[in-house]
Design goal:
Structural class: alpha/beta
CATH superfamily: Ribonuclease Z/Hydroxyacylglutathione hydrolase-like
Mean pLDDT: 94
Shape: globular
Bound molecules: zinc ion
Strand order of the largest sheet: 7-8-9-10-11-12-13
Strand content: 15-25%
CATH topology: Metallo-beta-lactamase, Chain A
Largest sheet: 7 strands, mixed
Number of domains: 1
Number of strands: 15
CATH class: Alpha Beta
Low-confidence stretches: 266-278
Helix content: 25-40%
Length: about 280
Amino acid sequence: MLKYCSIGSGSCGNCHYIGYKDTNILIDAGLTGKKITQGLNSVDVDGKNLNGIFITHEHSDHIKGAGIISRKYDVPIFANIDTWRAMIDKIGKIDEKNMIVFENDKSYSLNDILIRPFSIMHDAADPVGFTIMNEKDEKIAVATDLGNITTNIRDNLKGSDLVVLESNYDKEMLMMGSYTYALKKRVMSEVGHLSNEEAANFSIDLINDGVKQILLAHLSRENNFPELAYQTSKGILEMSDIKVGRDVNLDILRRNEISDLFTPNNGSGVIRANGTSR
Ligand SMILES: [Zn+2]
Ligand SMILES: [Zn+2]
C-alpha cells in the first residue's frame, strides 16, 4: 500500500513523505535537515534510501532543507526548469547528477510509483502539486499553496484515495489580524492561499469525484487554528449531506508535528498505522 506521513505542514515548513515498496520520496523539504531526518526515522526510513525530493515551488517553507538532504544522503532533487532557476541560489551546491528537471502535467515513473506534477496557481515561478500512484491504482495527491482551484487541479485530484489539501486561513481572522493590507490582499488573491471555506467547498467536489480521505494542510500560524479549520470543513460538508466518518475521513495536519502514517484501504477509507479505522 502507498504510505503517507506529514513531517511538517504550514507556513513554518512543509515536508511530506510518501512510500511504496522500496521507493521513498519527499514532496518538498522546507524544514531543517535534522527535522526531516527525525521524520524519516519515525516512519522507519533511512535517508540513504530516499529516491528523490520533489519540489512544488521555491518558497523557503518548501525548500529550506532540500540542499542539505540532497547532499547528506546523495538524493536527486526534481523540479521544473523555472523552479530550478528560482531556487538554485537558495539551496547551496547540488551535485549535477542530482539536479533533475521535469515538465508539468506529465507522468513519470520512479521504480514502483508513477508521479505527476500538475500546474497550480500561486505566486511562485511555476508552482505545482503532485499525484502519486502505484500499479494497484492507489493514489495520493498533495495540493497546497493554491490561490485558486482550476479544472486542471480538480481533474488531477479525481479518484485519489487521499488528498492533502491546503486549508490556510480563516477569512475573518485574516481580515482582523495583524498582517498589512498588502499581505492580506496577497494571501486572498488568485495566486495566494486557500481559505478554510474554499477548501471545504472544494472538498465537496473531491468527495463527489471519489476522494475518501482529506487531510487539511498548510494551516497559517497567524490566521487559523486546527479546530477552526476542522469544524469549518465539517460544517460545510454536513450542509451538503456529507457526513465526516461515513462519507469521508477528515483530519488536520498540525504545523509542527509529525503525523500518523496513513495508508489507503480500498473501499473503506484509510486505516491508521496503529490499525484504528477513522
Ligand atoms: Zn508558497
Ligand atoms: Zn507554502
